[in-house]
């Protein structure tokens, strides 16, 4: 009798680089069959399948080891980040961690990717993701509608700049609410932005 499984996404959370320690790797291996594979995504996540019957207990065990767990499908992905090369305060790691807590795992019309970078170098690639945040000195610039792949790949549009952390959280949440409420089923976020229009989105935030 086959065991029904579900796919989950796992990573080491928002920290200095996309890292896992030996204990976490051993814990992941504990729930893998000998011939089972895990999928490493471009968005700093590992996909693996776990038995549906005790998925909640397994994810709790993962979290206790310091891993973060997220649903797979039409949800907001965990925040893609740069490697925070100059320290948590200077590069805004606490802001990235809080933003990830607010948005990651929310159900949306189509998988949405948000990215954050702690300086204008842009290692987290915020300009080519659905929602991008760039820290510039002590404020935050917010971009939307980027597209990283395909022959029609394009850079996102600067929606707002010089935001405080509180303003950033609120505006990102408002953008998500707009997309959740008015996006068509399986409508990609960049298509939603193009359909509604940047000016209209600005007016409604």
From TrEMBL:
It comes from the Bacteria. Signal peptide: none annotated. It comes from Niallia circulans (Bacillus circulans). GO terms for cellular component: sulfite reductase complex (NADPH). The keyword Iron applies. PROSITE patterns: NIR_SIR. It holds the Pfam family NIR_SIR. GO terms for biological process: sulfate assimilation. The lineage of its organism: Bacteria, Bacillati, Bacillota, Bacilli, Bacillales. InterPro entries: NO2/SO3_Rdtase_4Fe4S_dom, NO2/SO3_Rdtase_4Fe4S_prot, NO2/SO3_Rdtase_4Fe4S_sf, NO2/SO3_Rdtase_FeS/sirohaem_BS. This is Nitrite reductase. Residues 91-204 form the Nitrite/sulphite reductase 4Fe-4S domain. SUPFAM superfamilies: Nitrite and sulphite reductase 4Fe-4S domain-like (SSF56014). Keywords: 4Fe-4S, Iron, Iron-sulfur, Metal-binding. GO terms for molecular function: 4 iron, 4 sulfur cluster binding; heme binding; metal ion binding; sulfite reductase (ferredoxin) activity; sulfite reductase activity. Gene3D superfamilies: Sulfite Reductase Hemoprotein, domain 1.
């Amino acid at each position: 009798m086959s065991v029904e499984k579900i796919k989950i996404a796992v990573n080491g959370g928002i920290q200095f680089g996309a890292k896992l320690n030996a204990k976490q790797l051993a814990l992941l291996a504990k729930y893998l069959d000998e011939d089972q594979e895990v999928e490493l995504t471009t968005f700093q996540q590992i996909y693996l399948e776990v038995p549906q019957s005790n998925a909640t207990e397994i994810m709790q065990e993962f979290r206790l080891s310091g891993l973060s767990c997220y649903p797979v499908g039409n949800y907001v992905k965990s925040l893609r980040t740069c490697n925070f090369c100059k320290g948590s305060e200077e590069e805004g790691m606490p802001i990235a961690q809080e933003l990830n807590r607010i948005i990651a795992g929310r159900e949306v019309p189509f998988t949405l990717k948000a990215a954050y970078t702690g300086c204008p170098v842009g290692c987290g690639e915020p300009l080519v993701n659905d929602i991008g945040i760039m820290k510039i000195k002590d404020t935050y610039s917010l971009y939307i509608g980027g597209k990283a792949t395909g022959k029609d790949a394009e850079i996102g549009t600067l929606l707002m700049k010089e935001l405080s952390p509180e303003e950033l959280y609120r505006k990102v949440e408002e953008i998500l609410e707009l997309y959740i409420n008015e996006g068509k089923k399986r409508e990609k976020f960049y298509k939603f932005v193009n359909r509604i229009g940047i000016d209209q989105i600005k007016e409604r935030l």
